[in-house]
Amino acid sequence: MVAAVVIFPAGFTDPRINDSKRLDARRREELVPVITGAAVSWALAESSETEIDAVNILQATLRAMERAVASLQGPPDYVLVDGSIMPGVLVPGEPVVGGDGRVACIAAASILAKVHRDRLMQAHHERWPVYGFDRNKGYGTPTHLAALAERGPCPIHRRSFRPVRS
What we know:
Layout: E1 2-7, H1 25-38, E2 41-46, H2 49-55, H3 57-70, E3 79-82, E4 93-96, H4 104-127, H5 133-136, H6 142-151, H7 162-165
Parallel strand pairs: 3-4
Antiparallel strand pairs: 1-2
């Protein structure tokens, strides 16, 4: 699980920046240098499969968000978070439901996080090609589930993921 945070200068706009789910992989890759070049500050943080298994996906996500904010070059004045729950950051902020489609800095963070995760999954594919991480990005597609049933999990599979548990 990857979380990102992006701080843009006041007044920054770029109509190409949108919810990462609304952009294809090529466009997301093209936007990474645009985002990182325009940002005042940005950071990425991860939660491992072990952390997710230990605390659940929501808590691991909130922890990754907290680590991303803490990794910035200085504390932000205010934090906008995609979703309905605020992580435990030490600065004021608010959750924004659907924020990745409505707020440029949240959309940009969603792009950076998605591109980073896709690159991680490509690297995992090179190590464990049977699972098709290059195509399914770790989601439970029929091909991925068939590989799990045939081969069992590899080290990066979450043990709390229902098909792995059973």
